[in-house]
Amino acid sequence: MNPFHIDEPTVISFSGGRTSAFMLYKVLEAHDMSLPEEAVVCFANTGKEDEATLQFVNDCAKAWNVKIHWLEYQPAELTKDRWKEVDFETASRDGEPFSALINKRSYLPNPVARFCTSDLKVIPIQKYMLSRGVEEFEQMLGIRADEKRRAAKLRQGNRTPLIDANFSQLDVQEFWKANSFDLGLKFQSGVTNLGNCDLCFLKGPNQVLSIIRDNPDRALWWAKQEHDIGGTFRSDRPSYSQMMKFATEQRDMFDPAEETISCFCGD
Predict the structure, then answer these.
(1) Residue 186 CB burial class (10 angstroms; 0-12, 13-18, ≥19)
(2) Axis-axis angle for helices 169-177, 18-30 (nearest 10)
(3) What structural domains and CATH numbers belong to the chain?
(4) Maximal C-alpha separation, the chain
(5) Can you spell out the DSSP letters for 114-172?
(6) What is the DSSP letter of 262?
(7) Nearest alpha-carbon partner for 253 in 263, 264, 242, 262
(8) How does DSSP classify residue 264?
(9) Which residues have CB under 8 Å from 177's CB, separation 6+?
């Protein structure tokens, strides 16, 4: 059976990256370039994605004539459903959903308590499906065959057709090189630095520092969250304001071998 064929209620989790977009295309391809009735495509926006990511999600929807539902977290006092649907024009672009969640929790997410993933992405998608009257559904994640660490953590209970079809990063990159449009974020050394939340605390430290060096203003939102809460996203790293200082001084501060932590968000 084609691993991209869908015949029961399924959420295609679209992170806004090249891999999940490639997965969406293969699903469409498996159904004569149309989305089957049982499938729903969801993009959960945190407000900290790069503008190029938002443009890419919009480009995919237009180029492939597929409906992508843009969802954002909302605190319970604003809506009992804890989500709202937006679009390319109305989507948050300054971390508003993420800030609202931090204010609600009164503490910062961290590598041990990654509630940002559950509250900003997983739960809004679940609540959205419930609003459609769908209580049980499969979730399709864009995890490649070469992502063994992510696969080990996330494959159980989810559909991972790229693994079943043995697609790797090379296959994804070759697809986008031949495509009429692409994500406007640079891919280098095996990663898209600005994919997902721009300065996510799960990204490798040198990756974060490199992004801040290129654009120190990106750290302002993260530094503000730490200042307002009176803590840090990670106890094993300097604060974002300290990293801004190191970046502007062009100083090295991390072990170059330290890697990014695997997460639901994907590529």
Answers:
(1) exposed
(2) 80
(3) 10-185 (3.40.50.620), 191-248 (no CATH)
(4) 56
(5) -HHHIIIIIHHHHHHHHHTT----EEE----TT-HHHHHHHSTTSB-HHHHTT--HHHH
(6) P
(7) 242
(8) T
(9) none
Q: Which residues contact 171 (CB under 8 A, 6 or more apart)?
A: 22, 144
- Give the position of tokens 């800030």: 99
216: alpha, beta or left, given left = phi > 0 and alpha = psi -120 to 50? alpha
- On whether the CB atoms of residues 8 and 138 are closer than 8 A, the answer is yes
Distance (Å, whole) CA 257 – CA 207: 11
pLDDT digits (tens, 9 = 90+) for 29-79: 999 999 999 999 999 999 999 999 999 999 999 999 999 999 999 998 777
Q: Please, which residues have CB within 8 angstroms of residue 37's CB and are 6 or more apart in sequence? A: none
Q: Which residues contact 72 (CB under 8 A, 6 or more apart)?
A: 44, 45, 46, 47, 83, 84, 85, 86, 91, 92, 96, 97, 124
Torsion sign across C-alpha atoms 169, 170, 172, 177: positive
| Encoded tokens for 102 | 């931090």
144-198, pLDDT tens digit by residue?
999 988 888 888 889 999 999 999 999 999 999 999 999 999 998 889 999 999 9
* Strand 10-13 to 187-188 pairing: unpaired
Structure tokens at 84: 């709202």
Q: Is 32 exposed, middle or buried (0-12, 13-18, 19+ CB in 10 A)?
A: exposed
